[in-house]
Amino acid sequence: MTVRIHRFPLSDSSHTVEVRNPAGSVLVQGVDGATEVVVSVEALDGAAEQLLDRVDVSATATALRVAVPERRITRTPRYGIEVTTPPDVDVTLAVASADATLRGRLGQVVVTTASGDLVAEHAAALQARSASGDVRGGRVDGRFTAATASGDVQLDDARGPVDVRTASGDVVLARTVTDVSAKTASGDVRVERAVSGTVRVRTVSGDTTVAVQPGLRVWLDVQSVSGRLTSDLDGDAPGAVDDPTAALSVLLTSVSGDLRLRRAAPASPAH
């Protein structure tokens, strides 16, 4: 299939990358030392090939925009779009079934998708909204916000506030250092290492597991109607649990979901 390449010189102003591509794939990568902005548009099927000349790729002093043609009567054209920019640019993506991949260090990221999956390596802040697509983040320095219906949400390194809402999607937060709010109906929630702040989790039938940083004092408020409550913190030293001055507060609420508290494994030494 045909591939079109567009090149734009860097301006003195910071860029915002805006991409609208319902079907296919989107890749945006922030590359250190990039001397220009490069956009690659590949037609992935016959319908896209016929409409390739109608793909709008334009740039101003502050923004780069890529928009594919509207859906045809019989099918949605599928395009593979790749954008290479310097790091730290803001990114806004609107996709439907297209998967989105963000590589390198990027700025404020906003992604809206229906069923496409999102993978973001490193963002200053990340806001994602999806129906059935999964959301996977590596490192987010600021606020992380995600809302899905059935899509799963996973974040490896949350360095800012976290706000996650799902209906049936599971939530996994590998490491959190400040406030967390997670709400789900039937999805499970797992926080693998909570370091500080307030962790609030509310579920209906989903199970919740929160692992607390070793040696950290914690204040607890745990409630469930019919779910089982399990705490591996009961054997901690006096004052380690239910300390109102603790650096970490954990508030867990469920209707029938099980709730578990434990200590996280000691962190591996840095090499």
UniProtKB/TrEMBL annotation:
Pfam families named among the record's database cross-references: DUF4097
InterPro entries xrefs: Toastrack_DUF4097 (IPR025164)
Domain DUF4097, residue spans: 105-233
Top-level taxonomic group: Bacteria
Name this polypeptide is given: DUF4097 domain-containing protein
